């Protein structure tokens, strides 16, 4: 399959605000991308606007403040999606098609029960929460992430394990929490299943407290995937560092001769995996 034949759905509702840069991140790498509203998948729009999940190879939930972050960030988007499309979504994931959730998108995946999805494709209710940051305020800054995945995640096959990337964060509810009596059990399971993808670190990897970890997430987790490796949720925004000049540190040019920013590998990896498997 050619990259141009890969159909990407960037899905939004009222309050989503990173759909354009997420669309552009896939488009600039050659995929055919469409930004659509959830209504086009779920309700009576004109036939010309009507879409179906099976029209696409990749589903992306971008960042933003969907439904104004009312109730909990991502909760309303997830509820509207689950009530109308749970079966289609489950089929999409079980077919191995990739699903990407960035920031508000990660919150939507947690609220949908698609992550961490311990032992199931989609849990009946959320098995974790992206809770208010420990600082109780919106945190927005460059963040350093160590790639801790051992090869399961389809979105990071081009990133060496242990590599530290700069991918910026901007959120108020990024504090990954598991049910209190299950914290160590969930963490152990995620490690064993190779579902931990990114952790916050500082550049020398010797400091992981605030502000390097902006939210207080358990084990400084910034991103996790499902057991199949085809669903990734992460709080930082890879679509905001597609180019070298988007990095605050200009000396990086020697590290990214092709002008790529650290976020580009996330999009390139998943496009390559779709080319190979569909
Ligand atoms: N940049 C985003 O997607 C923000 C996500 C969510 N609105 C929060 O503040 O946590």
TrEMBL record:
What Gene3D superfamilies is this protein classified in? 3.40.50.880
Q: Where in the cell is it found?
A: Cytoplasm
Q: Give the residue range of the signal peptide.
A: none
Superkingdom of the organism of origin: Archaea
Metabolic or biological pathway: Purine metabolism; IMP biosynthesis via de novo pathway; 5-amino-1-(5-phospho-D-ribosyl)imidazole from N(2)-formyl-N(1)-(5-phospho-D-ribosyl)glycinamide: step 1/2
| Organism whose genome encodes this protein | Methanomassiliicoccus intestinalis (strain Issoire-Mx1)
Q: Which reaction does it catalyse?
A: L-glutamine + H2O = L-glutamate + NH4(+); N(2)-formyl-N(1)-(5-phospho-beta-D-ribosyl)glycinamide + L-glutamine + ATP + H2O = 2-formamido-N(1)-(5-O-phospho-beta-D-ribosyl)acetamidine + L-glutamate + ADP + phosphate + H(+)
Q: What is its EC number?
A: 6.3.5.3, 3.5.1.2
The entry lists its GO molecular-function terms as: ATP binding; glutaminase activity; phosphoribosylformylglycinamidine synthase activity
Q: Which HAMAP family match?
A: PurQ
- PROSITE patterns for this protein: GATASE_TYPE_1 (PS51273)
The record's keywords, sorted A to Z, are: ATP-binding, Cytoplasm, Glutamine amidotransferase, Hydrolase, Ligase, Nucleotide-binding, Purine biosynthesis
The transmembrane segments are none
| InterPro entries attached to this UniProt entry | Class_I_gatase-like, PRibForGlyAmidine_synth_PurQ
The molecule here is called: Phosphoribosylformylglycinamidine synthase subunit PurQ
Q: What's this chain's function?
A: Part of the phosphoribosylformylglycinamidine synthase complex involved in the purines biosynthetic pathway. Catalyzes the ATP-dependent conversion of formylglycinamide ribonucleotide (FGAR) and glutamine to yield formylglycinamidine ribonucleotide (FGAM) and glutamate. The FGAM synthase complex is composed of three subunits. PurQ produces an ammonia molecule by converting glutamine to glutamate. PurL transfers the ammonia molecule to FGAR to form FGAM in an ATP-dependent manner.
Subunit relationships: Part of the FGAM synthase complex composed of 1 PurL, 1 PurQ and 2 PurS subunits.
Tell me what gene encodes this. purQ
């Amino acid at each position: 399959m050619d990259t141009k034949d890969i159909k990407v759905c960037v899905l939004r509702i009222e309050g989503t605000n990173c759909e354009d840069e997420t669309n552009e991140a896939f488009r600039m790498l050659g995929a055919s991308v469409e930004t659509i509203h959830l209504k086009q998948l779920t309700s009576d729009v004109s036939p010309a606007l009507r879409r179906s999940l099976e029209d696409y190879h990749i589903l992306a939930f971008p960042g933003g403040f969907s439904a104004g972050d009312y109730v909990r960030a991502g909760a309303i988007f997830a509820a509207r999606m689950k009530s109308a499309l749970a079966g289609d979504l489950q089929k999409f994931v079980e077919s191995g098609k990739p699903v990407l959730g960035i920031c508000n998108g990660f919150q939507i995946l947690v609220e949908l029960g698609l992550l961490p999805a311990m032992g199931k494709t989609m849990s009946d209710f959320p098995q974790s929460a992206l809770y208010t940051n420990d600082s109780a305020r919106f945190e927005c800054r460059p963040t350093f992430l160590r790639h801790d995945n051992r090869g399961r995640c389809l979105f990071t096959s081009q990133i060496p394990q242990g590599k530290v990337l700069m991918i910026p964060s901007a959120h108020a509810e990024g504090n990954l929490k598991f049910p209190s009596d299950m914290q160590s059990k969930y963490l152990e399971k995620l490690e064993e299943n190779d579902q931990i993808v990114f952790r916050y670190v500082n550049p020398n990897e010797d400091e992981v407290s605030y502000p390097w970890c902006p939210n207080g997430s358990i084990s400084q987790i910034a991103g996790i995937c499902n057991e199949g490796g085809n669903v990734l949720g992460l709080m930082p925004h890879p679509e905001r560092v597609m180019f070298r000049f988007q990095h605050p540190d200009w000396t990086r040019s020697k590290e990214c001769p092709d002008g790529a920013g650290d976020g580009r590998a996330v999009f390139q990896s998943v496009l390559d995996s779709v080319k190979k498997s569909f």
